[in-house]
Amino acid sequence: MAKRALMVGINTYSNRSFDLKGCLNDIDSLKRLLVSGPYNFNVDDIESLTDTSATKQSILSRLDYMLGTASPGDTLIFAFSGHGTQAASQDQSESDKKDECLVPYEGTFTSLIRDNDLHGMYNKYIDSRIKFTAIYDMCHSGTMIRELDVINDNIVEVVSNRCLDVFDLKGRPARDKEIGPYNILSACKDNETAADLRAVGPSKQSRGAFSYSLHNFLSLTPDLPVAIADGQILDGIKEVSDHKQNPHYVVYDINSPLIRY
């Protein structure tokens, strides 16, 4: 039974005005946790796409490969730390007429990775025999809240939501096809943004507030059920940031650990 992970972290975008600080530290921290913690991953089975290598084509092709070659009993993790945004949706079932999107390195409209791309891939490959978890630390802000919105084929800074809600985090009835036997961990609700902290913890590293709290929690209590973990991770965020964000989880079983393994 294999254990594999794909991690994407983008500090440097093609448009340098979108640059972030803590994303590479986020994925480095998660990698250490998976290798040295109870999850028992082999470092050679963790693939990282960072900055210029984190293009739309690379992210989707490597994710498709990881999911498509999985076997029953495998443990899989997909983690993204970078910008998120919303774009107009052609899906009439979207009540707000918007798709939530990952922003890859290119940072253009045509490069956005939409939630439909992701849940379509997840539901194509994942069944209850495969333990899959996706972790999104999206919508980072530094000393000021920097929002990303879509105009034509460019992404410009505006004040609007920049948070990815991969599935149904808007309070509307979830579509059955979006709920599968996997866990989705998101940094904040869709009407919030997520903090990118410049100096946090003993090492004073730049980190995403959600990733920092989540990884600290998992290093100490990896098997605590989601129903209990939620409040403790939020408390951890509040200890290091005054920024308002409430992590949101779409999980297969609230009595399961945050990361399925």
Automatic annotation (TrEMBL):
GO molecular function: cysteine-type endopeptidase activity
A Pfam family reported for this protein in Swiss-Prot or TrEMBL: Peptidase_C14
Domain Peptidase C14 caspase: 3-218
Residue ranges crossing the lipid bilayer per the database entry: none
Xref: InterPro entries: Caspase-like_dom_sf (IPR029030), Metacaspase (IPR050452), Pept_C14_caspase (IPR011600)
Biological processes per GO annotation: proteolysis
Listed GO CC annotations: cytoplasm
Protein name: Peptidase C14 caspase domain-containing protein
